[in-house]
Every structure is written in C-alpha cells, then in structure tokens.
Amino acid sequence: MVKASALYIVVIVSLLIAVISASLLTIAFYYRLGVQKKVRQERLLVNLQSGCEALLSGGFNTDDEFHLMDLYGNQKDSLIFRKEIWGVYELGTVKAFELKDTVQRTFFIGDAFSDPNAIYLADEDRPLSISGKTALTGDAKLPKSGLQRAYVDGQPYEGKELITGKITKSDRDLPSLNLKFLEEINKRLKKAEGPPRPAADSLFNTFFNTVQLYKLRPDQRTIKDVKLRGKIILVSDTIINIAASAVLEDVQIYAPAIVVDSGFTGSCQLFARDSIIIGKDCKFNYPSFAGVFKPEDGKVQAKINIGEGGTFAGILLSYEKKQSDLQTLISLRKNSEVRGEVFATGYIKLEREVTVYGKIYAKRFMMQTPNTLYENYLIDFTLNRKLLSKYYLSSPIFKTAVPDQKILKWLN
User: Fold this and answer.
1) Pairing status of strand 373-375 against strand 364-368
2) If we measure between CA atoms, which residue out of 192, 188, 354, 363 comes closest to residue 269?
3) φ and ψ at 252, to 5 degrees?
4) How many structural domains is the chain composed of?
5) Does any domain span residue 409?
6) Among 137, 216, 291, 349, which has the minimal tally of Cβ within 10 Å of its Cβ?
7) In terms of residue numbers, what domain contains 153?
C-alpha cells in the first residue's frame, strides 16, 4: 500500500523535472540564438572586408552619396558604401548589416606611392648644382642641362656620385593636379560660411556622422587649450593662430592665413590662400597636409614656412593656376625634416641641413646662405626616396594613370 505522502513527492519531483527541462530548453534556445548571432557577426565581418576591398577597387566614384549593394545577390548580404573627399584624401565608409546586426568602419584612402623618383625639377634651361654634404638618393627627373658639382663659399661637393639613381629628362611644367580636389578646396577657401564654433574645451565628431562645419568669429582667431578630433572643419575669413596647447587630429582648417606657434604637435590639414607659417620645433604627424592655393587675382606671394627643427609627415603643397611674377614659395628652415612629398608650382627655398625623405617637385630651388641667395643650388641637403616608409600613401590630388588605392588610416 502506497503512502499518501508519496503523491507529494511525485508532484515535487515532477515539478523539478519540468523546471530542469524548461531550463535546458531555454538554455538551448538562447545558445542557438547566440550561435546564430555569432555566425551572422562573422559573416558580416567577412562582408565588411569584402566591402572595403570593393570600395578600394576603383569602381566607386567620390560623390558623397550612400550606395546600397546586395553583395552576393541573395538578399541577405547587404552593404552600404560611401566615398567622399576629405581635404586631399578620400574618406571611405562601409556598413554591413543583416536584420538588426550591423558592423561598420570608416577610413582614409590614399594612393600607393610607387614612384622611384626623389626629385622633379622643371626644365627652365638651367642645371641643378650641388655642393657640400648634399646626398641625393633615388631617381630624378631633371632639366636637359642635368646635374653638376659646384663650389659655394669655397666648399666643394664632398660626394663621389652626384646621385644614387638614374636621371631622365623633365618637362617644362610640373605634373598637373586633380581638378576635382582643387575645386573642392577653392570652394571652401572662397566662402567662409557656417555656424559659430561653440565655446567648448573639446569637440569630437565621429566620421560616421555628417561633417560639423564651424565659422570662427573675430574673437576666436586663436585656437588654444582645446581638443578637436574627427569630422570637423573650421573656416575663417581672417588669420587663424594655432597655439601649441591645441590638440588637433584629422580636422581641416581653411583661412586666408594660418600661423602655428612653436612647439605644436598634431595631425591636421591646413589650407590657406596667402600663407602658412609654422614655428620652430613643431611636429606634424602623418597624415598631415599644409597647402597654399593662390587665387588668380592674388597680389601677394603665397608661401609656406616650416620653422627651424620642425618635422612634417605628409604633404606640403603650393599651387597657382597661372605663373605670376610673385610665384608661390615653400621655405624649409635649418634642421627641418619632411617625410612625404613637397610640391611647389613656384620656388622651394632651402637652408642648410634640411632633410626630405620622399619626393620633391619644384619649378626652381633657392638656397639661402649667410652671404648669398643661390638659384638651383643644393647645399648640405639630404634627399632620400628610399628611406620613406613603405607604408606611406600619397594623395589622389596627384593624378596617376592607374591609381592603386589602399587604406591609409582606420578611423572608427
């Protein structure tokens, strides 16, 4: 005969079994959801990588518009692309999504720099003379009159070879630039419009967002004690002064003239009509850009000055559409160093002990010594194409026949 209490035991055991079974089913359900989510995430990451490769393939125009693509035509692997101009570089955005799962990345796009030439000097029917401890490493495009040794202040050329590389003939003009980028830059320089910059110590705008464009008021001429990072553009219709205390990363600044105080460190893109003056011991990290774009009716000599002991990783550029009497000028002071490219539609003025790792383009060189100003002379100047980092990427503002685009910098 079964005791009555056994019924309670059966009920309790049944409830325990039911709870355990329900728990196991719930665990199995959520485990399956987790596995499915992980599989989706892995597929989205693969799709994102495929999207990045597709964006770099050259089949996408830089039109600032979002484009939707079904990657494999199965209505599951969807991608959204956008390619836009960001200063002298391009900005890529790729988003892969399925249901509510989304992964996305933004990055700067640059062109592979495979040019073996260290120097391009336009042919103005005069040779390039070298003296002192000058060392040229890399190929060269030079005037027909070529390269020659010279005595300067009683000092001869100390090297055995004039250049470590081959020499070919240059044209009378420098290579042309990408008009699409020039038009975008000139548009921003001509029209300084936008809401006033807020009085904040720090501004950050992710590159997934739309650009934040601010116009500086007359009382905001000096940028100091602030952190500006991301998709931010500052414009001004007067001179801008960047203090050493400012922290800038990836932002763009447009003004008639820009002055950077000594000791500044950061990475940004500076655009001016008249001048960019960079003080002593400044450090511009890669990828930085400083360029002056002289208007056709400009009455002053547009110039860039890199102060003594400064380092610049990126691109220095001076441009004017038609050659004027006051041609553009890029000046590199004593002990300054550039890692990248220097492009001047006018003059490049050098002092002693300047170093450039990369390539330099010029219509004419000017060499300043305590006694004399020499034209098309290089004295105690180091130019080495081979010591430029193999990871360096150039800008699409320099036109190439078949661009080989790569990811320059991951942003988000």
Assistant:
1) antiparallel
2) 188
3) -115, 145
4) 2
5) no
6) 137
7) 117-398
CB neighbour list of residue 370: distance below 8 Å, 6 or more residues apart: none
221 HSE (CA, 13 A, CB side): 11
Q: Are 373 and 367 within 8 A, CB to CB?
A: yes
Residue where a domain stops, chosen among 112, 146, 178: 112
The answer on 147 and 269 residing in a single domain is yes
Tell whether 78 and 153 lie within a shared domain.
no
Residue type present at position 163: I
Nearest in space to 193 (alpha carbons), one of 209, 216, 219, 221: 216
Q: Assess whether 243 and 139 both reside in one domain.
A: yes
Boundary-marking domain end, from 87, 112, 137? 112
**Residue 325, domain member (yes or no):** yes
Is 204 found in the same domain as 352?
Answer: yes
Amino acid (1-letter code) at residue 237:
D
Cβ atoms 355, 372 nearer than 8 A: no
Record the pTM. Answer: 0.88
- Give dist(CA 412, CA 93) in Å, integer: 10
Per-residue pLDDT of the chain (412 residues; tens, 9 = 90+): 556 667 777 778 788 888 887 778 887 777 776 666 677 777 778 878 888 888 888 666 766 677 777 666 666 667 888 889 999 999 999 888 776 778 889 999 999 999 999 999 999 999 999 999 999 999 999 999 999 999 888 888 988 899 999 999 999 999 999 999 999 999 999 877 777 777 678 899 999 999 999 998 888 889 999 999 999 999 998 999 999 999 999 999 999 999 999 999 999 999 999 999 999 999 999 999 999 999 988 888 999 999 999 999 999 999 999 888 889 999 999 999 999 999 999 999 999 899 999 999 999 999 877 778 889 999 999 999 999 999 999 999 998 877 889 999 999 7
CA torsion through residues 385, 388, 391, 392, sign: negative
Of 102, 96, 58, 64, the closest CA to residue 82 belongs to: 64
Identify residue 303 by its one-letter amino acid code.
K
